[in-house]
Amino acid sequence: MYAVLVTGGKQYRVMKGETLRVEKLDAEAGKEVTFDNILMLGDGESVTLGDALKSASVSAKIVGHGRADKVRIIKFRRRKHHMKRQGHRQHYTEIEITGINK
Fold first, then answer.
1. What is the C-alpha end-to-end distance of the chain, expressed in Å?
2. In 10 A of CB 4, how many CB atoms?
């Protein structure tokens, strides 16, 4: 069984037991978190969409928090003697999916 959930403005296809990185959540490591915004449930050949998912949820345990690798941004204007450098490290929360509830 798998589910498609929305968190942090992104959609993730998850299954029980998976570990994934999502946008930073405001909760401590070791806490349980529940995602209610479910777009799709799939179980073998059957797929459930729409109003049938109002009571569906995905529960997960927060494994930890961290920061991703640095992304380097370089803006360069040729023949203008201009170059600008910038870096960015995005915060993330690592979660482990513990259950999918219909």
1. 10
2. 18
Among 1-5, 51-55, 62-66, name the one with the lowest average pLDDT. Answer: 51-55
The whole-angstrom separation of Cα 21 and Cα 53 is 24
- The Cα 1–Cα 63 span in angstroms is 22
Q: How many CB atoms lie within 10 A of CB 73?
A: 10
Amino acid sitting at position 37: N
Based on the number of CB atoms within 10 Å of its own CB, is 95 exposed (0-12), middle (13-18) or buried (19 or more)?
buried
Distance (Å, whole) CA 19 – CA 17: 7
Q: Model pTM? A: 0.84
Residue 68 phi/psi, 5-degree rounding, is -75, 175
CA quadruple 2, 7, 26, 54: dihedral sign: negative
Residue in this structure with the two tokens 């029980």, named with its chain if needed: 16
Question: Which residue type is seen at 98?
Answer: T
